[in-house]
């Protein structure tokens, strides 16, 4: 893309979202979701009982390479973002940028804060470890549901299986493409020394239903679809 094409593309993306009468509410919900995802992700990483497949891979690779989680996640997302610009620009929005830039750094910052200010037994000793894990997992899933239901763009990681499904594996149902993609990412993490934990499995069962429940709540009480 040349400079003029980039400007037209940027303006088109901005117009698509800012002209939405629910833009302010959606942007607020998305921002809260992104912040809380990073916040509760810091607990999940600290308690070390698993995360979503994407974070599992990113934490494993950042540790192996000696790069901060936020910096590694941003770098990887920038590479994936190029593919999204080329093949799925309709999936780009404010939430795309917020997710790829902030979640890793937020998780990294609060992880540092917990290390300095919270007793280590909360994350290593049962039953405290289990309680922190259960609470953080539930809150992370709810926060992710806020982000996804805001409909403010898709994270580069989430856009890749969509691109694969629409361009390469058209005859295979998307859910199987997504499962295969998450599975591949998990295998990469395992190959680099990561250890699969229970949360990675629980995410599969919790995220879908929670997204639906939170979506209905937001639609009725926040966005008030059908009344604007």
Main beta sheet, described?
none
- What is the string of helix and strand elements? HHHHHHHHHH
- Overall morphology: globular
Beta strand %: under 5%
Radius of gyration from CA coordinates: 18 Å
- Number of separate domains: 1
Helix content: over 70%
The DSSP helix count reads: 10
> Which stretches of 5+ consecutive residues score pLDDT under 50?
none
Structural class: mainly alpha
The beta-strand count equals: 0
Terminus-to-terminus distance: 37 Å
Average pLDDT reading: 81
What does this structure look like?
This protein starts with a helix and ends in a 7-residue tail after the last helix. It has one domain. The protein is globular, with a radius of gyration of 18 Å. Helix content is 78%, strand content 0%. Helix 3 packs parallel to helix 9 (174-191) and helix 7 (128-149) packs across helix 10. The protein has helices spanning 3-18, 23-47, 53-65, 69-87, 94-117, 121-124, 128-149, 156-167, 174-191, 198-221.
């Amino acid at each position: 893309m040349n400079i003029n094409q980039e400007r037209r593309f940027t303006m088109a993306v901005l117009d698509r979202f800012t002209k939405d009468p629910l833009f302010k509410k959606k942007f607020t919900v998305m921002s809260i979701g992104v912040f809380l995802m990073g916040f509760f992700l810091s607990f999940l990483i600290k308690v070390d009982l698993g995360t979503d497949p994407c974070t599992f891979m990113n934490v494993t690779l950042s540790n192996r390479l000696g790069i901060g989680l936020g910096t590694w996640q941003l770098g990887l997302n920038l590479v994936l973002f190029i593919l999204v610009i080329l093949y799925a620009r309709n999936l780009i929005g404010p939430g795309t940028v917020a997710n790829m830039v902030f979640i890793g750094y937020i998780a990294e910052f609060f992880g540092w804060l917990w290390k300095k200010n919270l007793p280590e037994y909360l994350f290593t000793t049962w039953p405290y470890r289990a309680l922190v894990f259960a609470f953080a997992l539930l809150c992370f899933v709810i926060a992710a549901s806020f982000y996804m239901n805001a409909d403010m763009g898709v994270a580069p990681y989430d856009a890749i299986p969509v691109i694969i499904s629409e361009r390469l594996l058209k005859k295979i149902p998307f859910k199987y493409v997504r499962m295969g993609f998450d599975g591949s990412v998990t295998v990469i993490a395992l190959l680099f020394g990561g250890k699969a934990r229970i949360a990675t499995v629980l995410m599969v069962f919790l995220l879908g239903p929670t997204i639906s429940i939170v979506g209905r709540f937001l639609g009725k009480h926040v966005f008030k679809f059908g009344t604007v």
